[in-house]
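Supplementary Note 2. Why include the ligand at all?

Several targets in our set were suspected to adopt different conformations when bound, so apo predictions alone were not considered sufficient. For every target with a known small-molecule partner we therefore ran a joint prediction. The input for zinc ion is given below.
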Amino acid sequence: MKLKIAIQKSGRLYEDSIKLLKDCGIDVRNGMNKLKAEAENFPLEVFFLRDDDIPQYVADKVADIGIVGENVLYEKQKAVTVVEKLGFSKCRLAVGVGKDENYTGAQYLQGKTIATSYPVLVRKFLDDNNINAEIHEISGSVEIAPGIGLSDAIVDLVSSGSTLFMNGLKETETILKSEAVLVRNNELSEEKLAILSSLVFRMQAVKKAKN
Ligand code: ATP
Ligand code: ZN
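The joint prediction is reproduced in token form.
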């Protein structure tokens, strides 16, 4: 019996996900060009996937557990359980507007158009704040949308803010603070839960050692 974990194939979550497993004493042979790899010394099988697909795969039990950003997890709204916050890939989902705009608060967005790759989270934010605004869903390069006249504002992931700055935008409201989390399928067998708890025990030890 092995526990199946889904991690990002390449990108901002990949290195830290592999490093976390390594720090837990689990060796995964580099699977950059492979879909699957087996850990040598722990009952773990690793699947390399696009981060966007991880919540679905865990919900469907194609993978038992996964490492994914909270931003993707809450946008996708799949039924999975958060086991542990992992403390890496920290970023925020934030509103960006033209740097010279007179932004006084969320009501600025009333009647505006907003470009984003996070339509679900943006819609929720707008509804919570009683704002009527139009959402333009685009899949990448969201930060250029105001400059080309596609939208008045954007909602995108920000870490340093330099991408916004380079595109003549300033950061305003934070919609969600995000970091990588370990998620699991809602209905794992006792046997799989036992493997998971020994993995989580190691992860917690790694976290403590860092503090
Ligand atoms: P994939 O090909 O797997 O779909 P991607 O291009 O969607 O990759 P990445 O840019 O690698 O995704 O980001 C993966 C995750 O890393 C994000 O969903 C987010 O949780 C986190 N992240 C941390 N900092 C940032 C940042 N500054 N910009 C974007 N994502 C960030
Ligand atoms: Zn992605």
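The mean pLDDT is 95. The radius of gyration is 19 Å. Comparable summaries for the other entries are listed in the accompanying table.
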